[in-house]
Amino acid sequence: MADRHPLFMPLIFVGGLIFGFGLGFSHMARPEVVLNFLQFEDFGLLFVMGGAAVVSGIAFALVPRLFDRAPLTGDTYGRRLKPFDRNVLIGGAIFGVGWGLSGICPGAAYASLGVGNVTILWALAGMFVGAYAQGYWRSQRAASETATAAD
């Protein structure tokens, strides 16, 4: 890991707080709001996501042109392209089904805890179990592929 600016972690924390506050303030941390969007009853989420996409798009377009390196890490800016493969499709489908059933995504789940929704702990537990199972499955698969290649 590269040497980080001393303010790197505190600013990550502050950024998370701002993100969580924004989710709570816009009511996007409430699963019923998300479910109403998915049932085409309330389109507020569309405006929240659209606003975030515009701000992110402008930042991703302008910041690399204004700075050669990231201010806090010193890392160079670059695109990290991932292949569009079977894992992306399956993972996206699982995420979408979980989002549709629970009305919550991981970032909003933590913000939902912050606004007092303790029943969201069930969804968070499911996310942790799913992430652990996927990591275990991938490590077992990688180990078997390595053993097969060694033979």
TrEMBL record:
Transmembrane helix as UniProt keyword: yes
Short name of any one Pfam family annotated for the protein: DUF6691
Transmembrane in keyword set: yes
UniProt KW keywords: Membrane, Transmembrane, Transmembrane helix
Origin: domain of life: Archaea
Membrane-crossing residue ranges in chain numbering: 7-25, 45-67, 88-109, 115-133
Name the UniProt record assigns to this protein: Uncharacterized protein
Taxonomic lineage: Archaea, Methanobacteriati, Methanobacteriota, Stenosarchaea group, Halobacteria
